[in-house]
């Protein structure tokens, strides 16, 4: 199974910065493969959250199918806003689509820029994800993005 790494946080919380540090994608609005030229292996990156830059469920399913069948693709990294959108994909919609494929191990990380040693937004998000059986890890947003990226890589074995 391939890793599906979700970085969840509010608007301008540093999600895309961590994703750029983790994957080397060129911009914060990037949606495509990032290819390692030495190994020719890739990661599919969705650096702008579906709540900021619309992504339909049909398009997400096509991405999931394509990555699942691509032997050279290691997994997916996605930014997700913690909001409950009315007209765009919700966190629940995204994770339900991923689970339906049975092809991915989900690694979810909450990024709270107001982190002060307390639980931040994690309890509310964890409550929303409990019914899906998804454990939410919390990242300390006071740390440098590359440190959080290293923690994510170590846990998910993405790279």
List the keywords.
159 residues, six-stranded mixed β-sheet, 6 strands, Rossmann fold, alpha/beta
Describe the overall structure.
This protein is an alpha/beta fold and 159 residues long. The chain has one domain (2-156): Rossmann fold, CATH 3.40.50. Helix content is 34%, strand content 26%. It is built from 5 helices and 6 strands. α2 (57-69) runs parallel beside α3 (91-101). It is globular. The model has no long low-confidence stretch (mean pLDDT 85).
Summarize the structure.
By secondary structure, the chain is α/β, with parallel strands linked by helices. The protein has helices at 15-23, 57-69, 91-101, 122-130, 145-156; strands at 2-9, 31-35, 42-46, 73-81, 104-112, 136-140.
Q: Order of SSEs, N→C?
A: EHEEHEHEHEH
Q: What would you say the CATH architecture is?
A: 3-Layer(aba) Sandwich
Integer tally of domains: 1
| Number of helices in the DSSP assignment | 5
Using only C-alpha atoms, the radius of gyration works out to 14 Å
For the biggest β-sheet, the strand order reads 2-3-4-1-5-6
Low-confidence stretches: none
Query: Which homologous superfamily in CATH is the superfamily?
Result: P-loop containing nucleotide triphosphate hydrolases
Task: Give the overall shape.
Answer: globular
Q: Which strand-content bin applies to the residues?
A: 25-35%
Strand tally: 6
Protein topology:
Layout: E1 2-9, H1 15-23, E2 31-35, E3 42-46, H2 57-69, E4 73-81, H3 91-101, E5 104-112, H4 122-130, E6 136-140, H5 145-156
Parallel strand pairs: 1-4, 1-5, 3-4, 5-6
Antiparallel strand pairs: 2-3
Helix pairs in contact: 1-5, 2-3
